[in-house]
Amino acid sequence: MGRVRDPIRIDIIVEAATWAFTTLGFARAKIHQVADRARVGPGTVYLYAEDKEALFELALLRALESPVVANPTLPYRKTPPASFGRLIEDCIHEVAHFPQLWVASQRREHEGSATEYYGVLLELCRWLRRYHSVVLLAERNRIDWPQLSTSLERVVWADLQRRLTGYLSARMRTGHLVSIADPAMVARFTIDSLVASLVTGPIMSPAGARPRDDESLARLVAAPLIGSGDRVPLPPHPGQDASV
Predict the structure, then answer these.
(1) Which CATH number characterizes residue 14's domain?
(2) What's the confidence (pLDDT) of residue 134?
(3) What does the pLDDT read at residue 234?
(4) Domain-located, residue 17
(5) Which of 76, 160, 171, 208 has its CA 20 to 30 A from that of 119?
């Protein structure tokens, strides 16, 4: 009969499992590698998840902040295949919220679109920071967990691109954002650029140990669409002289 175990240790094991599944992929990740990173014995991992599939599901649901695994009975037992797809899709629906984009797309007044668009990009940056493990788990495990990548594509990326395309199209049509290309292409480029910068990682690590700066990234992505007469002030980088 399952029982509640050390909540600190489960966090450590889930963190180690997330590292293994996002770095090595499900097929290559081994329980002993998770155990080594968590600094526990392999047998201890099985006290928290019944097998590797259950460990992946536990890591994924934790990344999605699902209440199902807020305080689970352990060892965690995987969901039956017939129910897994619905569970994951429901969890993704719970986190796929971009209220600033929704409000902006409904607003009929288009003045101040540069600042508004900058805010929409910041919202997306913060969402990607918060759920970066979910995106990585989906991208790195498409073959072994196709339901995950399919649900993320349908519930998050397709809907996000549709909404962002509609928003950009309306602002470009009225001249409040620069019409540099087809709105659908701009929306796709915007999403892909932010995901590449914040989740999947740059080709080379930045020089020096600079803190993450979503504000600067949002400005860079927004810059081509913002006309010269409607600038968004760039906040100084933490620790950097504002006059530079």
Answers:
(1) 1.10.357.10
(2) 97
(3) 47
(4) yes
(5) 208
DSSP sequence for the chain:
--B---HHHHHHHHHHHHHHHHHT-TTT--HHHHHHHHTS-HHHHHHHBSSHHHHHHHHHHHHTT-GGGSS--BSB-PPPHHHHHHHHHHHHHHH---HHHHHHHH----TTHHHHHHHHHHHHHHHHHHTHHHHHHHHHTTTT-HHHHHHHIIIIIHHHHHHHHHHHHHHHHTTSS---S-HHHHHHHHHHHHHIIIII--SSPPSS-PPP-HHHHHHHHHGGGS-TTSPPPPPPPTTS-TT-
Within 10 angstroms of residue 18's Cβ, the number of other Cβ atoms is 23
Please tell me whether residues 174 and 215 are part of one structural domain.
Answer: yes
Q: Which residue(s) pair with 74 in the sheet? A: 3
Read off the amino acid at residue 57.
E
Find how far residue 233's CA is from the centre of its chain.
26
Residues in the chain: 244
Q: Tokens for 138?
A: 């989906």
Give the chain's domain count.
2
Residues 65 and 137 in one domain: no
Q: Give the residue numbers spanning the domain of 27.
A: 7-78
Is there a domain that residue 160 lies in?
yes
d(CA 51, CA 39): 18
For 13, the token pair is: 């094991």
